[in-house]
Amino acid sequence: MTVTADRTTAPRTLTLDALGRLESEAIHIMREVAGEFDRPVILFSGGKDSTVLLHLAVKAFWPAPVPFPLLHVDTGHNFDEVIEFRDRVVARYGLRLVVARVQDWIDDGRLAERPDGTRNPLQTVPLLDTIGEHRFDAVFGGGRRDEERARAKERIFSLRNAFGQWEPRRQRPELWNLYNGRHRPGEHVRVFPLSNWTELDVWRYIAREDIELPSIYYAHEREVYLRDGMWLTAGPWGGPREGETVERRTVRYRTVGDGSCTGAVASTASTLDEVIAEVGASRLTERGATRADDRLSEAAMEDRKREGYF
Amino acid sequence: MGDLLRLATAGSVDDGKSTLVGRLLYDTKSVLADQLDAVHRASVDKGLSTPDLSLLVDGLRSEREQGITIDVAYRYFATPRRTFVLADTPGHVQYTRNTVTGASTAQLAILLVDARKGVVEQTRRHAAVLALLGVPRLVLAVNKIDLTEYDQGTFEVIAKEFATYAAALGYTSDTVRTIPVSALVGDNVVDVSDRTPWYTGPTLLEHLETVPVEPDPHEAPFRFPVQYVIRPRTPEHPDYRGYAGQVAAGTVRLGEEVVVLPGGSRTRVARIDTRDGELAEAVAGASVTLLLEHEIDISRGDLLAAADDPPVLTDELDATLAWLADKPLRPGARVLVKHGARTVPAIVGELRTRFDEQKLSTTEYPESLALNEIGQVSVRTAEPVPVDEYRTHGRTGAFLVIDPGDGTTLAAGLVGAPLPVLGTS
User: Fold this and answer.
1) B50 — contact with chain A (CB < 8 Å)?
2) Quick check: pTM over 0.90?
3) CB contacts < 8 Å between A and B, how many?
């Protein structure tokens, strides 16, 4: 929250600017979930949006600990910096982390590797299986409506049927700030406290609250190769194909996802202020710039969401 | 960064709402290159010579296939003067409930009409819903003015007819602005059109950037629904007991006397807490944690209110419902009412009136309320609830009506009678 009064003379008066309103709305949503659901969980990847989500949860329940565990659906195609960050943050707040490893599903035959090697679409089954196994009834996600036009249609409280599916034509009315969390056994509700935030809001909030992020969000030198207009990095998920050459470039990541399909952007923004200036001036959306999986078709995101994706 | 305006679009199907929103985004340069590329590609694939801007907002496959909007799309854009949160809502009568969703938090609504058709049934239905929800300001965008050869007479007939209708719903002339536009070509959306020399008012964007925004209800009596009780029971905070919530109305100050409802006990605010430190006061919209002087049994669902100006505690609500479910409401229906952070079982007693927004009249004691109908009812709740009139206290005068069986949201509930009194037919 923005505090305008002199910091030395507590107590102070609180006024709300645009970021303060977004923060207050997100905290209100998280407290509603804590009050109405039995087994909520926060989807936590170590990316910027889920890190902001966790920060908001800490603020919403302070001085009590966050009353939710975390769930990470691990594609196995990770950036080392992100996993290291994830484990450090979990330890700092003393939280319980559930990890669903896509590799386990591939190993026992419940999932098959895709020919293109991308594992982002494979996350849906482990996610739904884990929700069922732990009987999670509310699942917080860091999705924002400004990311993509199918996400722009999402409610803040989004009911999923017993198959985990989103039924866009049957969404409940969502009136004022009264959220309806009723669901039947087997159903669950996806909750998006950052619905009304933009990418720039997220960065401004990270700056204001001094939130730590994985280092790959800032400019660094990396061996990359160009594919479909994106800078990909070599890893266990594969490397350059014939005709693709590896170069050393100064890049940063705008989103953090499965390593096989998350591209870096050429950037020299190495501080928060530089990142904010860059995001404000960008002529591409973060997904358009960095996510091969959203380029699969006109309705790539909608189709994945219908199946139960984040 | 300037202040923020939350707005919604409304109007009949095919009036060009999504195209208008696409045009606003396009002309304010709020569309990024990759989104624009995708729209250009899809438009070419459809055999169109100019980009179909509605594809920017119609995010669902079935919407693009049918060329209609089914559900609300939220868009965020900014100009140097103001930040906008825009809910683009569907025009089809079947999806009016999604329009209610988009309009429930709007400070202004843009209602579109097709200049060739004028005010139609759905214009009146949406205007009535906007009036009911208390959306303070309207813009009537007379769209497709290019298809009437920019005829001033056509525009004025529509403007006059709508002004009369809006006035009957309680909108004063200073709260309604009528603008001739063409979303397709761009006349008067962002740029002034030289084809409407007879129109001297602002363009749509200019109006959105300068229209006054209603302030938050900081001056209203204090209201605070308790969402969650924070009890850490840790070595550092063994006895901490805080009541977490968002200030729904008014301002809370240290030392102020509050009443706990429905219990009725009184106490004082001992501390206003956040993780960033203690506060002397917190205004409407702020999420905080309150600590009180006395140990009182308070739990989620209770309401803290200004002791000298509390809400009415009642188990018989006189309310207006906007019915949003496919199955009609009949007297005696068993429902759940969610008000603030409290959900209580309730029975709908009488249906007193049904509002006919087409004829601007009411029917007394109707047999039912069907999908999209508005009516006054009595609701008996299993426990008393502390309520305010919706017209004066939006946040504590609003409630949801929920189906206890499948959990569906059945209706938007508003305490009292927010619409003007009309004759019966």
Assistant:
1) no
2) yes
3) 199
